[in-house]
Amino acid sequence: AVSKVISELNQKLTGMALHVPIPSVSVIDPTCCLEKAAKYNDIKNMVKQAPEAPLEGILGYNEDQVISCDFNSDTHSYTSDARAGIALNDLLV
């Protein structure tokens, strides 16, 4: 669905959505195939900076231990959970 909205991501991004028992919260598990190798910590640092302008209020970043109901009142469209991500290698994150 992402590639239908952002065509440049076609065949570059995939993911999985999971059901969580909270009606106002959802979970996605995006997977990216990179053209250039990158260390996962460098990617996390870039994602951590993304919620600053112009994406302030749209993207969020979290390093706390949380569960789905912790996001009930979160107003961000997307919040990256730094503890939940992994890199399979430097090209697949």
Automatic annotation (TrEMBL):
UniProt cross-references to InterPro entries, sorted A to Z: GlycerAld/Erythrose_P_DH, GlycerAld_3-P_DH_cat
Localization in the cell: Cytoplasm, Cytoskeleton; Cytoplasm, Cytosol; Nucleus
GO cellular component labels: cytoskeleton; cytosol; nucleus
Keyword Cytoplasm in record: yes
Pfam families named among the record's database cross-references: Gp_dh_C
UniProt keyword list: Apoptosis, Cytoplasm, Cytoskeleton, Glycolysis, NAD, Nucleus, Oxidoreductase, S-nitrosylation, Transferase, Translation regulation
GO biological process per UniProt: apoptotic process; glycolytic process; regulation of translation
Organism superkingdom: Eukaryota
Pathway assignment: Carbohydrate degradation; glycolysis; pyruvate from D-glyceraldehyde 3-phosphate: step 1/5
An annotated Gene Ontology molecular function: transferase activity
Start and end residues of each Glyceraldehyde 3-phosphate dehydrogenase catalytic domain: 1-90
First-tier enzyme category under EC: oxidoreductase
Reaction catalysed by this enzyme: D-glyceraldehyde 3-phosphate + phosphate + NAD(+) = (2R)-3-phospho-glyceroyl phosphate + NADH + H(+); S-nitroso-L-cysteinyl-[GAPDH] + L-cysteinyl-[protein] = L-cysteinyl-[GAPDH] + S-nitroso-L-cysteinyl-[protein]
Stretch forming the signal peptide: none
Enzyme Commission number(s) of this protein: 1.2.1.12
UniProt keyword annotation of Transmembrane present: no
Homology family: Belongs to the glyceraldehyde-3-phosphate dehydrogenase family.
Assembly and oligomerization: Homotetramer. Interacts with TPPP; the interaction is direct. Interacts (when S-nitrosylated) with SIAH1; leading to nuclear translocation. Interacts with RILPL1/GOSPEL, leading to prevent the interaction between GAPDH and SIAH1 and prevent nuclear translocation. Interacts with CHP1; the interaction increases the binding of CHP1 with microtubules. Associates with microtubules. Interacts with EIF1AD, USP25, PRKCI and WARS1. Interacts with phosphorylated RPL13A; inhibited by oxidatively-modified low-densitity lipoprotein (LDL(ox)). Component of the GAIT complex.
Protein name: Glyceraldehyde-3-phosphate dehydrogenase
Organism: Lynx pardinus
Native organism taxonomy: Eukaryota, Metazoa, Chordata, Craniata, Vertebrata
